[in-house]
Every structure is written in C-alpha cells, then in structure tokens.
C-alpha cells in the first residue's frame, strides 16, 4: 500500500522528464549476433524486427567481445574457479585472475600498479574517496563525464574546493589555478581523454605542462588524472589511447575493459602507494564483490591480443575505416568535429531533423545514437557514429550512401 503514494510521486517526476524531452527511449533487445560474412561485418537481430542491423553505436572499438580467444579464456577460468568470487576482495574474494589482470593492465599503461573495479564509474568514485582530503582542490574540464562529476560529489568536495575550465581551454585552466586558496595542500586536475559525445581529445601534453608549472606551489603537488575509457585500446600507435597519442602520461590513469577491450570492469593505474590507498579507502572497491574470473581472464586475453600482430591489424583497420567515414562525411558536405578517434559526431543542429535521420537510419538497418535538445543545447544536436574494427569498407560505404539519401 505504501508504494501507491511513492508511485504517484515518481510518476509525476517521470511525466515532467517526458515533457522536458529527457526520458530515455524504450530499450531495444538484441536477440542474436551474426558473425562477419563476405564483404560485410557482423550484424545483429533485435526483438520484434525482421531485419539485420549494423551497429554504429557500440563502444567495442576493437570488436573483441565475440573473439574466440576471449570466450575460451572466460570459459576456462569459469570452469576452474566458478562464476562468482563469493566475497569481497579482502575476505578471500581475490583470485589469481584478479591479480593477473591488475599486473597486465599496469604494464599496458606503463604504471607501477593498478586496482580493478566493476566499472570505470566506480573507479572514478573510488579514486576520489582515496586521494582527496579537506585541503584538496579539484580542477576539471567542463565536459567531463558524469562519473567524474559524481565522484566529487560522493567525496564531498565543497564548492570552494573545485574549479571548472572551459572545454580544452588552456588559458582557462591557468585561470583555475589562480582561484586556488593558499591553504590548499594538493591540486588534482581531472579530465576525460576522449570526450565521448564529441570524439575530440584532451591535449594531455599541454595540461601536463601547466600542471608542472604550478606543482611547486602546493606541498603535495599537482596531480593529473585522465579517464581514458573511450581512448585506451582504440587509438594511438599501439592502442595506448590519448596519452600515447599526445606523448604525455598523466600521474593516474583511469580506464575501462568495457569498451575497446570488449569485456567488463574498470581500473585505476598509478604508483604503488596510490593503489594501496585505493585498496584501503575506496568504498566502491571495499564493499562490493569484484569482477568474475571470467571477466578477468577475458580482459587479460584482450590486452594480449592488443599487444600482438593481430592487435596492430585491428587498430590499422579501425583507423582506415574511421578515415573512410570522416572523408565520406566531408565529401557529402556534412559537418563533424575533427579528431583521430572512431567516435565521429554528425552535427545536424536541429532536433526534428536529428530524430528523423535516426529513424531513417534505423529503417535502413543502421543503429546510431541521436543527441537532441534539451539533452544538448539548441544548435548542438548531433548523431554519434562509432566505428569498430570489424566494420568493412562495404559497411561504411553503405552507411555513407544511406546518409546521402536521407540527409
């Protein structure tokens, strides 16, 4: 009976969200995966639909989720240790597969140590709890991911202890340092590596240079943190993401196994002391079960593939298909945001046209994400395309032909 009153209140909130245009569409249900065949890459089937779809809304940039080696590794680990750990890490919930993945990802991003989490979201929250204190000032890019913003709230960062700089604006980053109070002991500059709605990247080399300039002012220095969830594995000469592309490594790297590596989970990589502080202080690590051994084994295998000749071929095709799509948009006279990453936004700049084009693409068997007002400001409406390494030249040609017909 009590829920009748709560349901009524929540229904009113949901109706307000709908009136504001902020509600999510009903969730589509994938029922089948169809491997690549001939000149076409993988296709998907959806519940209630009789056509096959090409996905251009997937974060699986290297198309590893269905890789036989990952499936085999997950299966063998599960048969060895079971489907779940049965406890949190510090109550004998740590398995050899957790340790192996932590060593492997630390090696991959050239840091002394790492700690794995259930997601990059919980990684960001745990990091904020572990490295912040009352004498910490946080500086972030205005387009940082929700998980970074939420992490500062969970960590209880007061408004006077944080500053926001305009997106990728280094002059404004300088301004933020001038706002820092004299009694601050450490400053943390946190930013996305790839801004997932835009496909552009943080100029880490420039951010690091500014941080180095101010670090002597504070007893604990200036610490740089990148969340490179959309970058790692997806670009750079060897798939090390934004730090590799910019030839500059921040002090702390946060990332995910759930995008380019095709599995589940997140991580923090840093010094051994930072990682021990995370282990001791991060609620989102301490009070929840860890990844399954299947996820860990599959993610470790994905990292090994990335460091192999096969991985380099996947990266090369991803780069070629991304260039093909970007060049195709230019040829069609369509607007995008420049960048090397396989997130490619099509700037439509009109809500009605964006929604119509998303529907037209769906009818043509192409899955994409549309961003419309009020989720984005008027005039910034766009469609996000995400290229994967399993896409073929024929796939991209088909998408471009469809865009030519409907745009």
Structure description:
- By secondary structure, the chain is an alpha/beta fold.
- It has two domains: 27-56 and 309-406, Aspartate Aminotransferase, domain 1 (Alpha-Beta Complex); 68-306, Type I PLP-dependent aspartate aminotransferase-like (Major domain) (Aspartate Aminotransferase, domain 2), CATH 3.40.640.10.
- Helix content is 43%, strand content 16%.
- It has 15 helices and 14 strands.
- The protein has helices spanning 2-20, 68-81, 89-93, 96-108, 120-131, 146-154, 170-178, 204-214, 242-246, 272-281, 283-286, 293-306, 309-331, 351-363, 393-406, and strands spanning 30-34, 43-46, 52-55, 113-117, 136-141, 162-165, 186-192, 222-227, 252-256, 266-270, 343-347, 366-367, 369-371, 382-386.
- Strands 4-10-9-8-7-5-6 form a seven-stranded mixed beta sheet, with helices on both faces. It has a four-stranded mixed beta sheet with strand order 1-2-3-12.
- The protein is globular.
- The N and C termini lie far apart (52 Å).
């Amino acid at each position: 009976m009590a829920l009748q009153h709560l349901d009524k209140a929540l229904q009113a909130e949901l109706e307000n969200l709908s009136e504001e245009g902020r509600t999510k569409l009903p969730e589509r249900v994938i029922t089948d995966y169809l491997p690549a065949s001939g000149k076409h890459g993988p296709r998907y089937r959806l519940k209630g639909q009789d056509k096959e779809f090409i996905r251009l809304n997937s974060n699986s940039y290297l198309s590893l989720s269905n890789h036989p080696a990952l499936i085999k590794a997950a299966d063998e680990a599960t048969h060895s240790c079971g489907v779940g750990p049965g406890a949190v890490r510090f109550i004998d919930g740590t398995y050899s597969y957790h340790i192996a993945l932590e060593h492997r990802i630390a090696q991959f991003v050239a840091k002394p140590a790492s700690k794995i989490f259930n997601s990059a979201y919980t990684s960001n929250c745990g990091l904020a709890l572990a490295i912040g204190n009352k004498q910490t000032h946080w500086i972030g890019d205005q387009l940082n991911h929700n998980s970074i913003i939420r992490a500062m709230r969970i960590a209880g960062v007061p408004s006077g202890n944080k500053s926001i700089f305009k997106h990728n604006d280094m002059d404004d980053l300088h301004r933020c340092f001038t706002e820092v109070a004299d009694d601050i002991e450490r400053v943390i500059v946190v930013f996305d590596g790839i801004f997932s709605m835009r496909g552009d990247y943080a100029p880490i080399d420039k951010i690091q240079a500014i941080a180095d300039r101010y670090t002597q002012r504070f007893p604990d220095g200036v610490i740089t943190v990148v969340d490179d969830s959309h970058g790692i594995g997806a670009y750079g000469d060897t798939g090390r993401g934004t730090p590799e592309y910019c030839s500059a490594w921040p002090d702390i790297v946060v990332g995910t196994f759930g995008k380019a590596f095709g599995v589940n989970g997140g991580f923090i990589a840093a010094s051994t002391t930072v990682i021990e502080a995370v282990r001791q202080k991060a609620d989102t690590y301490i009070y929840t079960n860890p990844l399954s051994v299947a996820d860990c084994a599959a993610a470790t295998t994905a990292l090994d593939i990335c460091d192999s000749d096969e991985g380099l071929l996947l990266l090369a095709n991803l780069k070629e298909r991304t260039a093909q799509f970007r060049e195709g948009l230019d040829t069609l006279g369509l607007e995008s945001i420049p960048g090397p990453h396989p997130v490619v936004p099509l700037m439509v700049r009109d809500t009605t046209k964006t929604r119509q084009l998303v529907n037209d693409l769906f009818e043509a068997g192409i899955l994409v994400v549309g961003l419309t007002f009020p989720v984005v400001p008027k005039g910034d409406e766009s469609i996000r395309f995400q290229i994967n390494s399993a896409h073929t030249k024929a796939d991209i040609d088909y998408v471009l032909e469809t865009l030519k017909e409907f745009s």
